[in-house]
Amino acid sequence: MAAPRLHPHRPRGLTLLELAITIAVLAVLGALAAPNMAARLDHQRLRSAAEVLAGDVGEARYLAAQRGSAIQIGTHVGTPWCWAVATASACGCEAGNACLVHAGRAADHPGVSLIEGGSVSLEPSGQANAATLALFESRHGERLRVDVGAMGRAHLCAVKGSWPQVPAC
């Protein structure tokens, strides 16, 4: 003889009410997390734009030494903004310019604005005219600056916002 079941008619699975409550709780948690996630994403995009420009400075310094001639980096503020790594000064960011080596564009860094820009000349010896190359801003008002020192090295500093791994300006 088979052993009797303790709950012979109990259905398995979740009820519609249990599913509705679970979905409501998840929706509330998602609504609370969404603004924080957007701010964090903007924070990362801003840092990425500054780090990419700093990397381009390093590559341009190497290229100047390799070619034995100066390499210019110039920024173009506006809409859309860009920076150009070029073999001649005043070289635009437009594709097809013979002097253009590489360009960084606003389309590559959505949500980031270039609010101040400058230019720098990197000599084959590794030296540069020390300058502030760019000041970037996120949609939330955070700001990072890219400076180039006399030895042609790029440095990031935080003008506004909380940046644990970036020193304040």
Might you state the CATH topology name? minor pseudopilin epsh fold
**SSE class:** alpha+beta
CATH superfamily: minor pseudopilin epsh domain
How many structural domains in the coordinates? 1
Helix content: 25-40%
**What can be said about the biggest beta sheet?**
4 strands, antiparallel
Average pLDDT for all residues: 88
Name of the CATH class: Alpha Beta
Q: What gyration radius follows from the Cα positions, in whole Å?
A: 26 Å
Q: What strand order characterises the main sheet?
A: 3-2-1-5
Number of helices in the DSSP assignment: 1
What is the beta-strand fraction? Answer: 25-35%
Shape: elongated
Distance between the termini: 83 Å
The CATH architecture term is 3-Layer(bab) Sandwich
Poorly predicted spans: none
Count every beta strand, where a strand is a DSSP E run of 2 or more residues: 8
**Helix-strand sequence:** HEEEEEEEE
Give the arrangement of secondary structure elements.
Blueprint: H1 16-67, E1 71-76, E2 82-86, E3 100-105, E4 112-117, E5 119-122, E6 131-138, E7 143-148, E8 154-160
Antiparallel strand pairs: 1-2, 1-5, 2-3, 4-6, 6-7, 7-8
Short account of what is shown:
This protein has 169 residues and is of the alpha+beta class. The chain is 31% helix and 28% strand. It has a single domain, classed as minor pseudopilin epsh domain (minor pseudopilin epsh fold).
Q: How would you characterize the overall build of this protein?
A:
- It is built from 1 helix and 8 strands.
- The chain has 169 residues and is of the alpha+beta class.
- The protein has a single domain, classed as minor pseudopilin epsh domain (minor pseudopilin epsh fold, 3-Layer(bab) Sandwich).
- The strands form 2 sheets. Strands 3-2-1-5 form a 4-stranded antiparallel sheet, with helices on one face. The chain has a 4-stranded antiparallel sheet with strand order 4-6-7-8, covered by helices on one side.
- Strand 1 and strand 2 form a beta hairpin.
- It is elongated, with a radius of gyration of 26 Å.
- The chain starts with 15 loop residues before the first helix and ends in a 9-residue tail after the last strand.
